[in-house]
Amino acid sequence: MKAAVILFPGMNCENETMRALTVSGFHIELVRWNQHVNLDDFSCFVIPGGFSYEDRIRAGVIAAKHPLLDEIKKQSKKGKPVIGICNGAQVLVESGLVPGFSSSAQMGLAPNKNPEVNGYYSTWVKIRPAQQKKNAFNRLFTENDVIDIPVAHGEGRFATKEDNEKIKNLIAFQYCDYHRAIDQSFPTNPNGSLLNIAGITNEAGNVLAIMPHPERASFDKQTQAYGFIPKGLLFFKSMKEYIKEEL
Amino acid sequence: MIVELFVGLKIPDTTALTTKQTLESMNLHVKNLQRYDYYAFEIRGDQKQFEKKIASVDVIVNANKNIALFSLQQKGIKVLVKNLDGHSESLLYTLTERLEIKGIVKVTRGVVWVMDCSKEMAVEATTLLLYNPNFQEYQLL
Question: Which of B18, B26, B134 is opposite residue A53, by nearest beta carbon?
Fold first, then answer.
């Protein structure tokens, strides 16, 4: 099972992302924005975090207009999973792939609203799988899971002009407190995100834009200093299960 | 009273260059494109004195690389893009509390794009690339 890690200039989380994918059982290939590669060869696509094109104009928007995203859109229509992490999430949202109601951006990742820190904010947060049908990324999580996971971004506040009811059904992961409660205030919600959205899918459930970094919460060495259990690999292993079962 | 400040770059503006290239890849051929950071200060007091003072505040204008203008005379279609909640509490705090500049009531921030092209193309470039309607707004100046 082959996963493509898509790299645009300025992204910087590809190494830890590839490590997490390898341990999850994928063969991986780094696909740079300027390479000509047949995407039919891959079972899934991962767009990692970083600062593509130095966040010029808005985070993720330049990469979102790159022809490679059109190719990834075509692959996603075949049901193949696509996950965008942090800057990758910003790319997917700006490209319209998530939530995917039309070809233009139906959501945005606005600057954080945080009463303590202005701009870039980096910390550990808790998220939980939302009460949503199974998608390509949540199938190995249980209803009672609380996932300790890092965030590191300046523009991570999911915002939309769409009807919230339409969006609600697509929420995959939400910021929560220790007891899994959805508290909209800081610090449970670290950026003021609408409906505490940490990750949201398209309607088919095979494309996920997630702001926290699962690849940074995948191994004991990443979490043990904080006393957390690493659950990040479950995102990637879920993707593998989905590919086995659905494609 | 509102004082508008436009802060441009004396050095090459890589963001403007990338934006122009991206627009070209989208078949929107803008002859020239410039970008200015935009600030609108709601103030009480003497406008001229305030303008002199604010143009020398290095958190806004770094004299080594920036130019500060209080009106934009450049040729082209000017589009202001702001976040829907574009007022900046943190900058207001820095200016009034840390730098002790008196008389500022409110600060609004944004970006002004100056495009040498038709109005229709400027609007298309704005709606397709320069702003995201889910958390931003734009206006033609």
Answer: B18
Check: CB of residue A146 under 8 Å from CB of residue A175: no
Residues of A in contact with B25 (CB under 8 A): 65, 67
Give the Cα separation of B10 and B98 in Å (integer): 27
Closest residue in chain A to residue B36, using alpha carbons only: A57
Q: How far is CA B126 from CA A5, A31, B17, B79, B81, in A?
A: 30, 30, 16, 8, 9
The amino acid occupying position A148 is D
Provide the number of structural domains found in chain A: 1
Instruction: Give the contacts of A95 (CB within 8 A, at least 6 positions apart).
Output: A64, A65, A69, A73, A105
Taking the model in full, what pTM does it have? Answer: 0.95
* Interface predicted TM-score (ipTM): 0.92
- Please tell me the distance from the alpha carbon of residue A100 to that of residue A105, in angstroms, as a whole number: 8
Task: Look at A94 and B133 and tell me if their CB atoms are within 8 Å.
Answer: no
Distance from A164 to chain B by nearest Cα, in Å? Answer: 12
Prior bond to A187 cis, omega within 30?
yes
The tally of domains found in chain B comes to 1
**Closest chain B residue to the Cα of A193, Cα to Cα:** B135
Q: What domain range is B127 assigned to?
A: 2-140
Low-confidence winner among A49-53, B18-22, B85-89 (lowest mean pLDDT) = B85-89
The CATH number of the domain holding residue A70 is 3.40.50.880
What pLDDT is attached to residue B116? 97
Q: What is the pLDDT of residues A56-99, one digit of tens each?
A: 999 999 999 999 999 999 999 999 999 999 999 999 999 999 99
Q: Examine the residue annotation and report whether A213 is marked as an active-site residue of this protein.
A: yes
Query: Measured between alpha carbons, how far is B64 from B62 in angstroms, rounded to an integer?
Result: 5
